[in-house]
Structures are given as C-alpha cells and as structure tokens.
Structure to design on (845 residues):
C-alpha cells in the first residue's frame, strides 16, 4: 500500500503534476466534503483531474464549454497553451501554481483542471451560483434616484458601480481576508481623485485586521474607523451604487465585501448624514430646506426629551402659564417622576422598534398596533404616563428616523441627555453638549475633521453642506481637496 | 488650530469676563462712564498690544518656551503656570458666585465646577485642534444668544440712562478701564501658541482686539441703556438684561441663554489648562502630555474643592493688583524679552554671514 504524505493546510503546496497526490491533498484538506467534486477525466492521451464546488459553477457551461471540447477535440500535446488557444476558447481562464489557489478558486466558483505531469493548473471562470436579483435598496429609499441596490454578490456590485462610472480611472482591487472564511473584499477608487496615501492606509488597515471570517462590513468598520472612542463613525455605509459612485467621485475609497449588500466608504463626515441622493435631484432651495429639517431633526432627537425633562423639573418659568398649567396638571397625575417616565417610555419604544424589526413582517405590524394601543391610549387613560410626555417621545422617535445612519448614537445619547437634564437642568445639558461636541470634533477620519466643513470652516465646501448650490456652480472635487487641506 | 479658531476661542474667553461682570465688586459706574471705561481699556490695550503685534508679525517659528538658559526657561514656565492657575481660580470663582446666586441659589456647586473642569480636561487631552474646533462650533451659538438678548431688549433702551461721562470724575472709569485691561489675559494666547497656529499670526492681534472690544462696548452700552441705575444694584447686570429678553409668548429665557455662557468658562479653563500643561512638560520633559494635563486638571480640581465662601471669593475678585501683575508679566514683559532675543539672534546671524562673506 502506498502511503502519501499530505502537507498541512495553509502551507503553500506547489502542483507537482502527480494527480494522485493532488487528489489526496485536496481530499485531506477539504475532509472529503460533500460539495467538493474531484473527477478524473481523459482528454485524448492526457489524464486529467477536475476540481469544483457543487452549486458554485454553472454546470452547463462546464459541460459545453470545457469538458465537452476537451473530450471531443483533445489537445495534441500536454500543454495548456494548446488547450486555451484551440480547445477551450469561450471561457476566461488563468494559470495557477499551488493547490491552495486551486482550492480557493474552486470555493469561489471556478472550475479547476489539472493535467498529469503539468506543474500548474487551469482555473476557468464559470461561476454560476444562485443569487438574489438586483432589488430596490431597503434602508435608503429615494424618491428620484435609481431603484437598483447592491446585492450579496460583489461581482454584481462591481458591475453596478462600473455601469455608472464608465471611466478607465475607476479601479477595483480585490483583497482577501479571513483565515477560515477567505472572504473577498473589493476596494474601489477613482484614480486621479483619490489620495494615494488614503488608499494605502485603507489597504494597510485591512491587511492588519485579523479575522477568522468576515460576514459583514461591520467587522471591518472598527479597523477603518478613527482610533479615538466616539459615538460617531468615520466610516460611511450605503446600499446604493449611485451613492457609492458619488463618493468615489469625491475622492473616497469604497469597500465592497462579498456576501453583503452594504458597502462602506471612507472617510465619512457628519455633514454627509444630512445629505441624500434626492438632494441632488431636487432643486437647490428644496434640498436646502430638507437638509435644515434633517439638522433640526437630529437636534430634536438628541436633545428634546432631555430639555423637556429639564424644563419641567428645573425651569418651569420658561413655559407660558397656560402650557405650564396643562403640563403640570397631567404630570401630577402620573406615579413616576418625569425623568423616570421619559426613560421608561423611551426604553419601551426601543423594545417595540427592535421587536418590529426582528419579527416577520406579518407579525411586526401586530407589534405596532399593540404598542400604539397599549402605550398610546391605555397607558395615558390609566394615568401611568402623561400625554405631553407621549407627544415628546413620539416627536423624538419620528425625528430620529430622519437620519437612519446615525440612529444608534442618537438613541443612546437621548437617554444620556434625559438623565443629565433630569439631574442638572439646562446647565447640565449644555455641559453634555460640550462633551458631545468635543467627542465629535476629536475624530478626523483620514485627516478630514468629522465636523468639516463647519469646523474648521471651509467656505468653498459650504455650497454643499446645508445650503446646496445649483449644479451649474457646484464642483464637488474642490470640496474634498479644500477640506483635506 | 487655525487663526480663525484662535480668534473665536479668544473671543469666547474674553466675553466671559464681561458676561459675568460684577459692578458691585468694585464701584458702580453710570451709563456714560461704563462706555468710557471700555474705551479707556481699549486704548490701553491697543498700546500694550504693540510688542505682541511685533512679536506675532515676526518670522520666528520657534516655540515660545524655547530658551537658551534652562533656569530662565524654568522660571518662565513656573510664572506662566502660576498665572494660569490664578486666572483659572478667579474665573471659576466668578462663575461659582454666578452659579450659587443665579443658577441654583444657596447650593454648593463645586461638583458642577468639577464637571466643567473635567470637560476642559477632556478637550485638552484631545488636543489643541479639538479645542479650536469646539470653540468654532460654539462661537455662533454664543454670538447668537447674546445678539438675541440685545435685539429682544432694544425697545427698552432709554436714552436718559446714558448719563454724561466723567460726571463723577475720571478716577473710577480709569480704574475700571485698568481692571478691564488686567482681565484681558487672552492677549497672551497667540503669543504662546504662535508656532501651533495654521495660517500664521500676522496682522492678528489688532483685528481681534478691536472686534472684541467693540462687541463688549455694545454689550455694556446696551446694558446701561436698558437697565440704567437699576443695573448698578444688580450683582450681574448682564444676567438682569437677559431676564428681560422675551420670545413672543415665552417671557423667561434667562436659564436657556445663561446656560450657553457655560461654554465660555469651559473654553477659558481649557486654554488655561492647555498652556499650563505645555509649561509643565517643558519643566519636566519626561512627563507625558496626557499626564501633565491630568496633573494640572487635578490642581484645578483641588482649587475648586478648596474654594471659599462667596464673601471671601468676592474679596479676591476685588483685588486688581494680582491679575494686573500677571498681566504685565505675561502680556508686556515676556513678549518684549522674546522680541529682544529674536532681534539679537537676527543680528548675530547677520554678523556671522557678513563675516563669512568678508572672509571669502
């Protein structure tokens, strides 16, 4: 009996032309996994071995474009050039040198063939796995933008970007990360616009990140984000190819991860949360109005409950008499102090939101109805919660959905400001606001201050901050250059 | 930090003194004299700022604390730290009196002051750029809140309140003018931070000085015009002015507006901690920036905890000599010494190059 010594996985093993050994190594490394297909074949006088992953290849293409021609019209000599030039001419192929590459390619949907005696293999691009079709983005709905959103397949996502940016300057670079997952990451950039240092820094950070597997862009985010702990992130997220293209044109670096429809880009600043793709489709005055509304909504969603609590506890003199009487008469009937009441209702709202989000859509509606009935009606009628507080919470909740990208920090900050407002009043809220502003100003993703162009003031960039200038005058490239400078 | 940010930071710091100006701690002035004391202060500051302007317009990129003599450097640092801690003390004292009489009367608010110091420490640890950006963001907020007070009380201005200047003689306006000068320690900031300012500090000091003093003049003039003699009886006249501001049916906005003044004290304390931290690191080069900030902030915390009763604190604020002495050292003597040193070095370089060319 011949015993074959199999090298350990992850050691680079060159293909040595011995099909038996190759087969043994692949079987050993993959543990004879049910979806790994290893088939011996004969093409004329040449013995061969094919390696593929079940369900990842287009089997029709494999049969008709690779195995069929190889059997019908076998190469005269044991030479890959001959195969590629005369036999298999309809499929893209690359030559690979190690078994590791062969396995990685097979797992990615390539069809790999080894010839007896050849020290390389051919990897054919015949991916054909099932995938979700291009659909409308769920989390970034736009009125006048494209209806196409990213999908889980990153090649499709690359195509969606390329379709909108038909420039030879658009560059895609594929990196691999994840010790076990072997996940592919595509770096997108626009040559001439992107700062090469920024691109290098992104590559360096991704290279330094050690993962077992990367299943979502959220895994990469902390490695690409700023080093200072902050409520806010210097990494932007988008589900829209048109948004990504706009960011690439601004000189940013896009990162598309295989297996997730959410792409990320760096650097990302606070002002971008105010922007949406519709702003650029609408007329400037309306876009400006919407941005102002968004800024107001951000302030309301963070500060309003805290300020209400501070007003009712410490600064009642600010209310006009009638309103004060109306509020206090209802608050006095409730069993909880105002601050506790505010925290409780917000927590209940968050529980309902989370339940509505995670449950199946059909049940999710029921959660909303129960929430509205129980919280909105019964709790007020029973005298557990005051109606003014409910109005404040409702207004805050709606406002916080205006900028969904920063819902997380807003939800937490809101509770912090309720506690501060309830213990130190307006003065405490201002102190909290100072700390929040320091936190925001302390992050400078890739050299661009998070609060730019407001601080440091960059006058030229103001044309696309809150005020959106008309297209005739706006040139977005200068904006990024100015901010970086 | 950019020069715009420095401008705003200095503005906020100086406005704090005027916002919490206590006429009862010295002698109250009538309307005309209140305006005159600002004018006198401005004239003195314009003269005093001349060496600073010369220094800031110079080409030297060296750190303010760089000295050939180590002993002089240490003495210089110790004096600056002492001055900064002293100004922190009187700023916090001033705010403490305001807080315990207006914000939460008859309460011990040292905990509150400690939070302010903590915020300032957080900002200093994050760096000068963060301090500048924070000042830039709050600048508009403060200017808007003060302007709102002024605009909403415009209908209450009585021209009869502008009593003739010098009616009670020149002595008091002059004294108050000098007091105003002694509190303008902000003139030292650009001198100290010159090498860290992006965009340079050329032609910086006079535009800042004149803009800020003009703003203060408007504030004080407005307060005199609205409050008149009533203002003399008030502990914080500008707070009284704020109490009169209304927004439609909302008639008491004082808590809302005065809370914004916290930003000024925060900025002021933060810059004092920053400068002290730099000096401490210069004296002890092995101490890290973060540790030095912590040491200075701990000293500020200690000052807050040891802060005395209001009466004693007010006595401290009445003393004009201490701040004036520090002002003279920091704003007049040190910049002149640096100017002379720079000139001497320039002459040396010129002589050396002249000798070299003669030799050739």
């Amino acid at each position: 009996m011949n015993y074959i010594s199999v090298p350990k996985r992850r050691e680079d093993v060159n293909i040595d032309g011995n099909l038996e050994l190759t087969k043994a190594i692949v079987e050993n490394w993959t543990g004879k996994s049910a979806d790994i297909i290893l088939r011996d074949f004969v093409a004329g006088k040449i013995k061969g071995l094919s390696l593929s992953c079940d369900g990842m290849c287009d089997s029709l293409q494999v049969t008709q474009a690779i195995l069929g021609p190889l059997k019908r019209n076998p190469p005269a000599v044991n030479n890959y050039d001959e195969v590629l030039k005369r036999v298999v001419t309809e499929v893209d192929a690359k030559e690979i040198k190690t078994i590791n590459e062969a396995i990685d390619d097979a797992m990615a949907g390539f069809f790999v063939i080894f010839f007896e005696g050849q020290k390389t293999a051919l990897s054919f691009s015949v991916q054909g796995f099932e995938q979700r079709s291009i659909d409308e983005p769920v989390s970034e709905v736009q009125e006048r933008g494209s209806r196409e959103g990213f999908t889980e397949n990153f090649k499709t996502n690359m195509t969606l970007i390329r379709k909108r940016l038909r420039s030879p300057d658009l560059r895609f670079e594929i990196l691999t990360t994840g010790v076990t997952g072997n996940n592919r990451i595509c770096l997108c950039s626009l040559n001439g616009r992107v700062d090469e240092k920024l691109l290098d820094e992104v590559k360096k950070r991704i290279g330094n990140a050690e993962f077992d597997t990367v299943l979502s862009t959220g895994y990469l985010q902390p490695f690409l984000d700023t080093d200072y702990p902050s409520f806010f992130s210097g990494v932007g997220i988008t589900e829209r190819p048109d948004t990504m293209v706009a960011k690439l044109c601004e000189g940013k670096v896009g990162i598309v991860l295989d297996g997730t429809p959410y792409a990320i880009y760096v650097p990302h600043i606070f002002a971008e949360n105010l922007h949406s793709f519709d702003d650029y489709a609408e007329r400037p005055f309306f876009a400006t109005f919407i941005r102002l509304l968004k800024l107001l909504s951000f302030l309301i969603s963070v500060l309003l409950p805290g300020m209400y609590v501070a007003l009712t506890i410490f600064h009642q003199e600010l209310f006009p008499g009638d309103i004060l009487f109306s509020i206090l008469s209802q608050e006095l009937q409730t069993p909880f102090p105002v601050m506790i009441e505010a925290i409780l209702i917000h927590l209940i709202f968050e529980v309902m939101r989370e339940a509505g989000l995670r449950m199946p859509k059909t049940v999710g509606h029921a959660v909303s109805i129960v929430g509205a009935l129980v919280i909105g009606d019964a709790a007020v009628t029973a005298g557990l919660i005051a109606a003014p507080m409910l109005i404040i919470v409702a207004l805050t909740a709606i406002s916080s959905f205006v900028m969904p990208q920063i819902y997380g920090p807003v939800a937490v900050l809101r509770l912090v400001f309720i506690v501060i407002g309830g213990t130190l009043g307006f003065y405490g809220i201002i102190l909290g606001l100072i700390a929040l502003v320091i936190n925001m100003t302390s992050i400078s993703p890739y050299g661009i201050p998070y609060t730019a162009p407001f601080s440091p003031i960059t006058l030229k960039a103001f044309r696309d901050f809150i005020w959106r200038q008309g297209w005739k005058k706006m040139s977005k490239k200068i904006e990024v250059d100015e901010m970086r400078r | 930090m950019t020069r715009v940010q420095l401008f705003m930071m200095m503005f906020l710091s100086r406005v704090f003194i005027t916002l919490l100006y206590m006429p009862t701690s010295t002698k109250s002035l009538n309307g005309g004299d209140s305006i005159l004391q600002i004018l006198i202060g401005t004239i003195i500051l314009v003269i005093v700022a001349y060496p600073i302007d010369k220094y800031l317009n110079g080409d030297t990129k060296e750190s303010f604390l760089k000295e050939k003599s180590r002993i002089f450097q240490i003495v210089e640092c110790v004096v600056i730290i002492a001055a900064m801690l002293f100004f922190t003390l009187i700023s916090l004292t001033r705010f403490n009196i305001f807080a315990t009489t207006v914000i939460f009367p008859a309460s011990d608010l040292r905990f509150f002051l400690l939070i302010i110091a903590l915020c300032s420490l957080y900002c200093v640890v994050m760096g000068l750029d963060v301090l500048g950006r924070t000042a830039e963001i709050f600048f508009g907020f403060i200017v808007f809140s003060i302007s709102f007070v002024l605009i909403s009380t415009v209908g209450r201005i009585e021209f009869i309140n502008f009593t003739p200047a010098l009616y009670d003689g020149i002595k008091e306006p002059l004294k108050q003018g000098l007091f105003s000068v002694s509190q303008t320690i902000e003139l030292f900031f650009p001198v100290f931070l010159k090498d860290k300012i992006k965009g340079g500090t050329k032609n910086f000091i006079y535009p800042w000085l004149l803009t800020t003093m003009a703003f203060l003049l408007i504030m004080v003039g407005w307060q005199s015009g609205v409050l008149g003699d009533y203002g003399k009886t008030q502990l914080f006249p500008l707070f009284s002015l704020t109490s009169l501001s209304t927004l439609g049916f909302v008639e008491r906005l004082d808590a809302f507006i005065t809370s914004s003044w916290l930003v000024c004290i925060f900025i002021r304390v933060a810059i004092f901690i920053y400068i002290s931290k730099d000096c401490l690191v210069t004296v002890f080069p092995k101490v890290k920036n973060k540790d030095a900030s912590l040491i200075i902030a701990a000293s500020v915390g200690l000052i807050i905890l040891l802060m005395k009763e209001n009466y004693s604190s007010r006595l401290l604020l009445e003393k004009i000599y201490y701040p004036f002495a520090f002002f003279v050292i920091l704003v007049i003597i040190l910049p002149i010494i640096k100017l002379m040193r720079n000139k001497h070095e320039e002459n040396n370089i010129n002589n050396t190059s002249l000798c070299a060319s003669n030799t050739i």
